[in-house]
Amino acid sequence: MGSANFDDRSMRLNFEANAMVYSDEIGKEMIDAFEEDLGRCTEYTMEMFSDRTLIQRVRTNISWLVSEQL
Predict the structure, then answer these.
(1) Which has the higher per-residue pLDDT, 22 or 69?
(2) Second label for 17, Cα 20 to 30 Å away, from 7, 10, 40, 55?
(3) CA–CA separation, 55 vs 48, rounded Å?
């Protein structure tokens, strides 16, 4: 669940769309799923980002270069 992005790739290639759902039951399921996901998360701090290895930094930069194609 999420929202569609308003860019050419999302609209033309990914066929993203938005839908409105009016249901207390589905709303509760979405909240429960989100809270379950939060329980499996690890906080990623600025310190952790700064301490990346050289290989991780290179991968980040390469990913940024090809991000338009992803």
Answers:
(1) 22
(2) 40
(3) 14
